[in-house]
Design brief:
Strand 1, helix 1 and strand 2 form a beta-alpha-beta unit. With about 350 residues, the chain is an alpha/beta fold. The strands form two sheets. Strands 14-13-12-11-7-10-9-8-15 form a nine-stranded mixed sheet. The protein is elongated and about 80 Å long. It is built from eight helices and 15 strands.
């Protein structure tokens, strides 16, 4: 039985509590939040604390989920490690590589395990694109586009404050970057070009556009904006496009709607011959002839955020490795730092 404590009982703290309640191998024993009002909906069977030191000293727990504000992760993780508690930390684990290294020194000195809640590796839309990439369904991939759009500058609570660790690069960029790096596992990231901006927010970034060039010649573009407007249905959501030398695929929304589009005509067309479609402005961009393109459904995947904790339970028991490792998290943070550097310099920066 994993005896769990939660530090931070805001939105994600409540999400974690509800998830933990679904596992027979986990029991939430204690919850801590500096705001007593946040604890009012806790069951009486769960010990409530407003001070993390007191919880660590008194509560019958062996594991802690750290889901407080980003700038508090360093302090709380170190306190949990010194109290000999195993740790699951919300993303981003730290606000810099240097801060992460200091945290890990304390974790390693105290012999506890730490992993990070990068649960969006289990998003349906991402897993579909990863399946297409892994299986070569559209041939040799040369471009991947990942985007997420919102409107009216949707940022909230402490996320709007720089000294709290707010901003979209820390909030969502850490997920989008982690997905790409995990999908491209083992492939060197050669260069990064990034534009990170405050469009309407005073302190924190609310827009970024990032380009990665990997050693396997795959170009990746990430774009996120919280202040976009469009009259296209369902445009304010998640979007993917992946292009290969045998076809393309698009995947829209977290529920993942889209298709794979291929052809067996253009691949056999003789070089220099007339395009197989109606005439366009330069012939190459005309409307494809009927029957030229082959449309197929996106591959089926079975995934759920719950799987993150299933892996955690198995890893704690020694049955499998942790899905999210500290070296992976450190690399993601290093990429985020390189993105800020590139944006500040206004040019591409070498990475690996």
């Amino acid at each position: 039985m994993i005896k769990m404590g939660l530090v931070g009982y805001g939105f994600m703290g409540h999400v974690h509590y509800r998830m933990m309640e679904t596992f027979g191998e986990i029991r939430v024993m204690a919850v801590c939040d500096i705001n007593p009002a946040q604890l009012e909906d806790l069951p009486e069977s769960v010990a409530a604390y407003t001070d993390v030191d007191t919880m660590l000293a008194e509560a019958d727990i062996d594991t802690v989920i750290v889901c407080c504000n980003n700038n508090q992760h360093h302090s709380v993780v170190c306190k949990c490690a010194r109290a000999k508690k195993y740790i699951i930390c919300e993303k981003p684990m730290a606000l810099s590589v240097q801060e992460l290294d200091k945290m890990m020194q304390v974790v390693e000195e105290n012999g506890v395990h730490l992993t990070v809640h990068q649960q969006r590796r289990f998003d349906k839309d991402f897993r579909i694109i990863k399946e297409i990439y892994d299986t070569g369904k559209v041939g040799k991939v040369y471009t991947i586009q990942s985007s997420l759009y919102g409107y009216n500058g949707n940022m909230h609570d402490w996320h709007i404050y720089k000294d709290e660790g707010g901003g979209m690069l820390y909030d969502w960029g850490v997920h989008l970057i982690d997905q790409i790096l995990w999908m491209m596992d083992g492939v060197k990231l050669k260069s990064i070009f990034a534009d990170v901006r405050n469009v309407i927010m005073k302190e924190c970034d609310d827009f970024f556009k990032i380009q990665f060039h990997f050693e396997n010649n795959v170009n990746v573009e990430l774009e996120l904006g919280t202040y976009f407007f469009s009259d296209q249905p369902d445009w304010f959501s998640r979007h993917w496009f992946i292009g290969g030398d045998k076809g393309s695929a698009h995947c829209d929304g977290f529920d993942a709607e889209g298709c794979c589009v291929t052809t067996d005509h253009l691949l056999t067309q003789a070089p220099g011959s007339k395009p197989l479609g109606a005439e366009g402005p330069t012939r190459s961009f005309g409307k494809p002839a009927d029957g030229l393109l082959i449309t197929a459904p996106l591959p089926e995947v079975h995934t759920d955020h719950r799987y993150y904790f299933e892996n955690y339970i198995a890893a704690r028991a020694g049955r499998e490795p942790y899905l999210v490792t500290v070296p992976q998290v450190r690399r993601t943070l290093a990429v985020m730092e390189a993105c800020r550097k590139s944006s500040k310099l206004g040019r591409s920066v070498d990475f690996e």
